[in-house]
Amino acid sequence: MHHVLLDRWSQRASALHARDPRAKIIVLLVFLIVLATTPVQAVVMVGIQAALLAAAVLLAGLPFAGVLARAAVVLPFSLTFGLISWLAGEPLRALALVEKSYLSTLAVLLVVGTTPLPRLLSGLEALGVPRLLVLVAQFLYRYLFVISEQAQHMRVAAACRQGSSRHRRPRFHAAAGALAMLFARSYNRAEGVHRAMLARAFTGRFSTLGSLRFGAVDGLFVVATSLFLVLVRLQ
Amino acid sequence: MHIPDNFLSTPVWATFDAISLPAVALMVKRASRQLEDTRVPLLGVMGAFVFAAQMINFPVGVGTSGHLVGGALLACTLGPAPAVLVMTVIIAIQAFVFQDGGVLALGANVFNMAIAGVLAGYLPIQIWGAGGRRRRALFAGAVLSVMVAGSLALGELLISGVVMPRAVILTAVALFAVSALIEGAITVSVVGALEKLNTGFVQRPERSPRRSLAALGGSALALGAVGFLFASTAPDGIERLGIQLGLATKTAFHAPLADYTIGYFGAGYFGSAWLRKATAGLAGLLLIYAVCVAAARWIGREKSA
Predict the structure, then answer these.
(1) N or C: which end of chain B has fewer CB within 10 A?
(2) ipTM of the modeled complex
(3) CB contact, 8 Å: B50 with chain A?
């Protein structure tokens, strides 16, 4: 599964990996807002923003081609709309849609690729996201792979049992039954998980190894990058 | 339909971020009031279930298959506020981990699919869910949740000025309608199977249809209307401001009077173009809504007969 790749990327070490997640989230937001408000005609400005992203990918030591390919997931959507805009006689707008949505995706990918998700989530919590949301996100991410694997098993099993069936109705009902079964198993698993966590003195919040520290370097990083982006935008 | 970044114009995403933030906060508050502690891992695991459910394909037609979206199913098993919460987390994880949908557009996506989608999906269940018309209510809810989310996304794109010829809009609406009907059929079928497994899974709303109907319908309508009004008035005001600001900085050395008239004409032009777009979008949305409700009733009657 491709998100495992993201986990591997985020475990590396670099100057960008070492930054506090809060700093990266703030810079990401500044970057996205600056990019979103950059006029279409400002080719140089968009070029500088793209160059900054490329430099950051290299600095983070992430595989360049891999990151570019991963960010291409947005292309089917944006190329479709870009094509429509172009055919409607607005080539500039088409170009803006495609290139800016791609750059935004790249920026998000850069942050997620240099920050393990638990750290990113505790950064979000420190920035004021409600604890319940963060907690649900942590459980979701933890069990995503487990339950997906179970779904995969059930799909294979179903295909083995009735792969030759040509009738739509029984297959539809079989799929619904499988989904209900998956639901029930997930439900029971959640209860078991919770009991086990209580038995290990779960207090309602995850304690992570190594707490967040927003140091002077992080502050410098936020101020310098934001200032640079805003100054380029104002030119 | 997850909208990526830079598809929505700045006033639109900013407005939806501003709406979704307090709305999600409110839902978190409501959910944490109803939930006992044991349900917190449940919400996360059920979110993972909705992700995994996309792997199980439902045969629908010649060579095509659909999968569960999950808004209505979550609403009728977990309750509306926890369902909104879980959907919000799902959309956020899709934006960050899977690059499906933008980060600035997160507010819009959350509003479409998690808030409006889930609440619209819960509305029929709340009204008719306790009585004998359960299956029909479920079906209508699932259809509505997909339809509302889809048309809201379409409306936001249109207001933002993304070029879409009529043929494209019609195709998109047709696609939404088809996937909404599929979602309805899947939801009814899965809930049926769930009730056979364990009747405790599916929540039955208390029998106080009138008050809750008014409250839920009112809040859903208010949310929708406020969202739409904000979204359609904001571009006007802010765009005008932007044009004037832009002109002011560019033509700082020109005579102030010339600057003013250009700004005025520019604003007038944008105002009228926006007005046409917004009215067309709103009318289309209402039409889609009406057609969808009618179709859901008709198909639901046939199914339960």
Answers:
(1) C
(2) 0.91
(3) no
